[in-house]
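User: Hi! I have a protein structure encoded as tokens and I'd like to know what sequence might fold into it. I'm fairly new to this, so please keep things simple.
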């Protein structure tokens, strides 16, 4: 299933490639909620993941992985790369999927409806993309369960900027 421009899947390249679990928070870590950041742009997804890692601090961060754009570097979303990222961060405690725009929501909802593409315990989280990603990663890294991670990310809607 593809959404966006229909040109395929992506998670980008290079910075989006799977890495071992560790302080960069990119790979699965048993017991921690994993986080997938779904954007129409590989660059945006990667940048938000990097920002969240930086703001969450050092140490043993929960796994987070970007899934954005198309394989050829275009804009869009890819069900294949979303599923790949979710599997990469799945440590058995659930996976929180945060999305940027409408068709990314539809792509994730379709994956959840199919039932076999995403790990058990995967959940679409209604949250602002950047602030929600930071809150989700901080909470997951502190040992929060999937409900706590989703709540923290969703609460980011209330952050005032004035």
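Assistant: Happy to help. Inverse folding works backwards from shape to sequence: for each of the 162 positions I chose a residue that suits the local structure. Here it is:
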């Amino acid at each position: 299933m593809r959404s966006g421009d229909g040109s395929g899947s992506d998670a980008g390249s290079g910075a989006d490639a799977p890495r071992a679990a560790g302080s960069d928070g990119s790979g699965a870590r048993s017991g921690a909620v994993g986080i997938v950041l779904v954007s129409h742009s590989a660059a945006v997804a990667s940048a938000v993941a990097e920002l969240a890692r930086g703001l969450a601090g050092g140490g043993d961060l929960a796994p987070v992985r970007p899934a954005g754009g198309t394989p050829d570097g275009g804009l869009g979303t890819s069900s294949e790369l979303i599923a790949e990222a979710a599997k990469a961060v799945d440590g058995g405690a659930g996976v929180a999927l945060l999305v940027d725009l409408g068709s990314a929501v539809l792509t994730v909802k379709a994956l959840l409806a199919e039932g076999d593409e995403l790990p058990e315990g995967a959940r679409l989280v209604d949250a602002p993309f950047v602030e929600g990603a930071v809150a989700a990663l901080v909470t997951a890294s502190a040992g929060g369960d999937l409900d706590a991670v989703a709540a923290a990310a969703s609460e980011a809607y209330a952050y005032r900027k004035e």
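A useful reference point when you look it over: The CA atoms of residues 48 and 130 lie 6 Å apart. Feel free to ask if any position seems puzzling.
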